[in-house]
Amino acid sequence: FVIIAVIVIAPLFILLLARRQGGVAALRQLILLGITGSLYFTLYASLSLVLPGPYAIPPVAAGMVADVALPFAAVVSVGLYLALLMEPQWYIVDLVGFLAGGALIAILGISFALLPVLILLSVLAVYDYIAVYRTRHMIRLADVVTDMKLPILMVMPDRAGYDYT
Hints:
The chain is an all-alpha fold. It is built from six helices and two strands; from the N terminus they run H-H-E-E-H-H-H-H. It has one domain (2-126, 136-148). It comes from mine drainage metagenome. InterPro entries: SPP. The chain crosses the membrane at residues 30-51, 63-84, 104-130.
C-alpha cells in the first residue's frame, strides 16, 4: 500500500517542485542521481557475471579484495550521468532511458511476487486513466519531463540531424 501511495503522490510532488524558482534544475539533478545510482547497482551485478570475479590482494590476511566490475560499473554510470549533463542529445537520453528501464525492471522484478505485481499494475492502470483523461496532470508532467531532457521518455527524431538540446 505504501509503494502505491508513493507512486500516486510522486507526480504531484514533481509538479509542485517544478513550479518553484530553481526547482526544475534541482529536481533534474535529483532524478539523474537516482538513475545513476540504479544504473550503478544493476551494472555492477550484471558485469560481475561477465568480468573476472573478485580476487584477494596480497597480503591475503588483510582481507582486501579487488573486483573489476566495481570500478567499471562506476565509470559507465558516472559517464552516462555526465553525458546527460553536458550534451543531452536524443540518442544519449534514449540509451540511458533504455538502461534505466532495464535497471528498474531488475530491481522491482526481484522485489515483488506475482500477486502484488498484478495488484500494482491494476491500480496503476486506473491511476493512469484518471491522470491522463480526467485530471490531465500526467500530460503536464510529461511536458515538464520533456523540457528537463530526462531519460524517462523515449525520443524519436523526425528528421536527420535532429538536435534535442
